[in-house]
Design goal:
By secondary structure, this protein is an alpha/beta fold. The protein is 53% helix and 13% strand.
Length: 404
Amino acid sequence: MPNRKHISGLHAARAADEFARREPVKWVSSPQEEGKQVVALTAAPAIGAKKGPPRLRKSPGRKDTIVAPTIGLEESKAALRQVFGETLLDEFVDVMLTQLVSVLRPGPLDVLDEATLNTAIALIASVRPRNELEALIAVQIAATAFAGLEFLHLSQRHLEEAYIEVWGGHAIRLLRLELKLIQRLDEHRHSNKQKVRVEHVHIHAGAQGVSGISNSSKERDNEDAKKGPPRLRKPCSRNDAIVAPTRGLEEHKAALRQVFGETLADEFVDVMVKKLVSVLCPGAFDVLDEATLNTAIALIASVQPRSELEAVIALQIAATAFAGLKFLHLSQRHRDGVCVEVWGGFATRLLRLELELTETLDKHRRGHEQTVRVEHVHIHAGDQGMLKIVNSSKETDGGVEEEK
């Protein structure tokens, strides 16, 4: 193991250039196209009433090309969109697969076998993410789980103290981070649930009574009519030029204002997009493709920020998430002690910060919730009564209506 005290500028520049040059996961029409090693989608296995996740068929090799099946292409893509947070964007699926593969196969000489890839997909599917934010956390759970096991393996393969301290210590941090990701996902899902406490409800003989919680029809209609986030066109991957659609410009701007906290200022949107691009493409030679930019926009939209403050937090969640996955990749790409400690340590801190951001956002939103407590409700013989909590039409204001 090298005994450097710091990462040289040349080494860091080469690592950044390697990361920028790494091609995203691609779809091609046939396994024979250009003689590339490929990955192909196959039908999901079904056992009884349980349907398995979509599988990715990978031929031996080191290329990250995906081959779409000639039959059932749309069905296969729809199955993958379902796995990755029920997203409406194929771009989001492609970028998430790229991020996953970059951690599972960090170096150009590493090999990612078919079984490992499909195990990671099955792990993500088992989380059942319901939006893009939950899908991102599910990908991070899989990434930290596999990376943690890899460094745990390396720490036992070389039983010297230096290896145990660096690789073993990093393995422990990664596996603890995996637990934090799972806990944060569970807390995030429960944070949007409403708790109602009802005590001493007496329904006498001959009476009829109902006690329960019902969601408003408006909320169900909004879930059924899910719309995809607005997209941004980026003609060149090595500069910050962004092109809005030539048709429906005002509608497009309105959609972006909705994504960024329902703001009324186009300037706020412009500044937020510039901040996002500056993090996703920090260097002059870095590459930011259109799919990654739109994936970040979709991630921010999935948070559903309701103010400029929440929009800033949502952007920071996206920024720390992508940066954390980047440094997690680099820590495995260059496994010497200094790189693991510097880049790996920074990756775990970034991903922990992402969890703290989501936790703060959930707590900020819960501050406006109203608790309803009902005690001693008596429904006498011959009467009919109903006790339920109905979500107000002004759901964003945190209102709650009580009906008896």
